[in-house]
Automatic annotation (TrEMBL):
PROSITE patterns: ABM. Gene3D superfamilies: 3.30.70.100. This is Quinol monooxygenase YgiN. Residues 2-92 form the ABM domain. GO terms for molecular function: monooxygenase activity. InterPro entries: ABM_dom, Dimeric_a/b-barrel. It comes from the Bacteria.
Length: 108
């Protein structure tokens, strides 16, 4: 399972617009193939900063969503509201079941 976190800093006066976009699209995103979970988090110290937290069966499922018509509607509308570039990253659980195919480099 792949976890995707996207941290977004909005123009404070545009937060209401973002929340409307998110509320309108969240259930559609949740029904995308491979999406297992989607949450919206608000920063504890900066009320205009939000993160989406989602779980995907695979990186391919996330990529398929990112190439979808839905993403093509949601993301451009969201980007117009930013006060700073977003920070996005994907992670896998670490451990013996990790999907990585190579060993980490040996320390010198």
């Amino acid at each position: 399972m792949l976890t995707r976190i996207v941290r977004m800093t909005f123009q404070p006066e545009k937060v209401v617009d973002f929340l409307a976009i998110f509320r309108d699209s969240e259930n559609k995103i949740r029904t995308m193939p491979g999406c297992r979970h989607l949450e919206l988090w608000q920063d504890a110290d900066a009320s205009h900063v939000y993160c989406t937290h989602s779980h995907w069966d695979s990186a391919a499922d996330l990529d398929n969503y990112r190439r979808s018509v839905l993403f093509g509607q949601v993301w451009p509308a969201t980007k117009r509201l930013f006060a700073a570039p977003p920070l996005a990253f994907s992670v896998y659980p670490a451990g013996p079941d990790s999907p990585t195919t190579s060993s980490p480099p040996t320390p010198q």
